[in-house]
Amino acid sequence: MLPIESRLELKVAVSFAEIQSAVWLCGSDKAPGPDGFTFAFIKKYWDKISGDIYMTLKDFERLGNIDKGCNSSFITLIQRPTTLILLMTTVQ
Q1: Which of 1, 14, 29, 73 has its CA 20 to 30 A from that of 38?
Q2: Alpha carbon distance 85, 19 (integer Å)
């Protein structure tokens, strides 16, 4: 079981800056899923897609689930001491 401090940190809302930082920490040549989009693609078009990514995560925080249009994928935030890593994985 997680210590109480860690459990409380999981309830803190994720900021736009934390999400962007997590994306930039991912290797550009890594693909989060079999769709072939690498993090280089996500970084290149960040200005166009970041709002959608942010709103998806905020909706998840508020509702506790992700829209059915995303039912084949899930997004996981893994906390590090000073940052969060965004990991997008396709469920098979």
Answers
A1: 14
A2: 8
